[in-house]
Amino acid sequence: MKIVISDGCNNNCSFCVVPYTRGKERYKSLYNIIIESYKTNIVCFLGQNVSSYYFNNSFIPKNIFFKDLIKIFNYKFFNIIMIEFITSNVKDFNKKTIIDIFSCEKISSLVHLPLQSGSNKILKKMNRKYNLIDYINCIKNIKIISKRFLFSTDIIINFFEKKKDFLKTIYILKSFLFDRIFFFNISFMKNTSIFHKRYIKKKNTKLKFLFIKRILEINIIINSINLLGKKIKCFLKKNIKKNIYIFYGLNKRKILIYSKKRILKNHIYYSRIINFYKAILCGNVYKNN
Ligand code: SF4
């Protein structure tokens, strides 16, 4: 279940209209989030910038930050089997916060961290408030906690980039084997600080899209190979035929499973991956260890 926990954004990225259309960040109360999540097993916390979530009121002895929200859902609600969040900003993730969030065993193994560009020069022009080293350190610190994590990201192309800036982006996309990449062409929207540059020509858009698509296809295959023989936490998505099931891994990959055992809804299973076809994994299934 998708639960909007915040609205608006305080960040002012130079290409984005959200600060103008939605205004400053506002956060939903912990009480309302808990009420909304009642009866659900999978929560996805949504907001333009969930990582800066903050809540306090006089009934709660301490401030609730995003990491606290995750920990509450991870440790206090036994019905919850998976926690996701979209979208966050690496500038909000210091080492301690990363440890707190990604040590939670229910957190999705596919972590969405928008990169936007692999070039520091472009990140600065975008006013993203992090640089490449911050981003890389964030991924490395998450990986230190567990090897189970895969990553997805957002990329904007043609943001006044030169060939070398685009190639830097490609290098990062390849190096960290992003399992999902959402890529967009820059659009010059009214009210943004780059609107007056809207007549600048966008170069080689189709080629750049194709390039990123190919990188993604290769990344998916490498990640699938790396998952062979590994044990993945998963839960039932649907029963497609007698004894044939689609499970959903905590890494958000579909897992095709043949099993004569009785499969229960809303229960955590484990699957040992034995084969794959592109992004679809095949495995067996068993409960607990
Ligand atoms: S891109 Fe995201 S972080 Fe940047 S201003 Fe827009 S909503 Fe905020």
Task: Give an overview of the whole structure.
By secondary structure, the protein is α/β, with parallel strands linked by helices. The chain folds into two domains: 2-227, pyruvate-formate lyase- activating enzyme; 231-287, Nucleic acid-binding proteins (OB fold (Dihydrolipoamide Acetyltransferase, E2P), Beta Barrel). Helices cover 30% and strands 26% of the residues. It is built from eight helices and 16 strands. The chain has helices at 18-21, 30-36, 66-76, 95-102, 120-126, 132-145, 163-175, 205-227; strands at 2-4, 6-7, 26-27, 42-46, 54-55, 64-65, 82-86, 110-112, 150-157, 180-185, 231-241, 244-249, 254-258, 269-277, 280-283, 286-287. Strands 11-12-13-15-14 form a five-stranded mixed β-barrel. Strands 1-4-7 form a three-stranded parallel sheet, covered by helices on one side. A three-stranded parallel sheet has the order 8-9-10, covered by helices on one side. Strand 5 and strand 6 form a beta hairpin. Helix 3 packs parallel to helix 4 (95-102), helix 4 runs parallel beside helix 6 (132-145) and helix 7 (163-175) runs parallel beside helix 8 (205-227). The longest helix is centred in the C-terminal third of the chain and has 23 residues, at 205-227. The model has no long low-confidence stretch (mean pLDDT 94). Residues 9, 11-13, 16, 18-19, 48-49, 89 line the site of iron/sulfur cluster.
